[in-house]
Amino acid sequence: MKFSYQEEYRRLLLSFSFGFDRDTFDIQQQTTQVPDKMDCVFACVGVPWCRSMNFQTTAHNNGLHVCELLSTDKHTHQKNMTRNDTFIHFSIKNQCIESPCLNGGTCSLQINRHDYHCQCKKGYHGLPFGCSSHANITDATRNVNNANTTAPIKCDKRIALGWYRFSGAAGVRMPTNCVPTSRCSTHASGWLSDPHPTIEQGTTTMKVCFHWSKNCCNWSRSINVTNCGEFFIYQFVPTLTCSLRYCSEH
Predict the structure, then answer these.
(1) Which family does it belong to (predicted)?
(2) What is the mean pLDDT of each run of 10 residues along the chain (250 residues)?
(3) pTM for the full predicted model
(4) What domains, with CATH codes, occur in the chain?
(5) Is residue 51 exposed (0-12), middle (13-18) or buried (19+ Cβ within 10 Å)?
């Protein structure tokens, strides 16, 4: 995720008391207090709808700074920037600003706020984002048939956020039925709780369940799944704990 400084000491004001019409300027805002500006950045990273933030340079008596999380960015609402010498504004680069979608397609940011997805207009079509740019997972230890309990236990808590495709010895897709525990070289085996999306459905947000303690969905994570026609890709996110792992099958 890339951040860029807005002009120093400028603030994106979203309070409707400044004359914005709620019907035409419907933007989310959340205020919190943080020790320093990097904590403000991390606070935004932890909120899916956050696109930018205002950080108050002067701390309160408790040593904390005001951090305003905003659901828009300087690129989208540049005209709403106003000078305020007590705040610094940070923005996440919005890939959709450069209008990457052709023929009038609609651009939307993905869950990691760096990749984007194009929704084609009627009569047009194209490969979804990620179908031509993804990482291949060929590791046979991820396959549901791998029940080797003596091998080192693996975990996806540190997996890099991005698009992945299963191929080769790993298999071709994630399972859509509850996988027994202690498979895929892990303790809690990960599987999709619903069928894979069709091509027409495009990129779909789905739930991955992790089987543990006699509960097929003891933990869960939401990921994006795309049908690329001949294969599926998955936008994996780090698991909440160890040892949980995304599994595959032939």
Answers:
(1) Belongs to the EGF domain peptide family.
(2) 36 35 57 93 83 90 93 72 81 74 79 70 76 91 87 91 95 97 96 93 92 96 92 94 96
(3) 0.56
(4) 5-93 (3.50.4.10), 129-246 (no CATH)
(5) buried
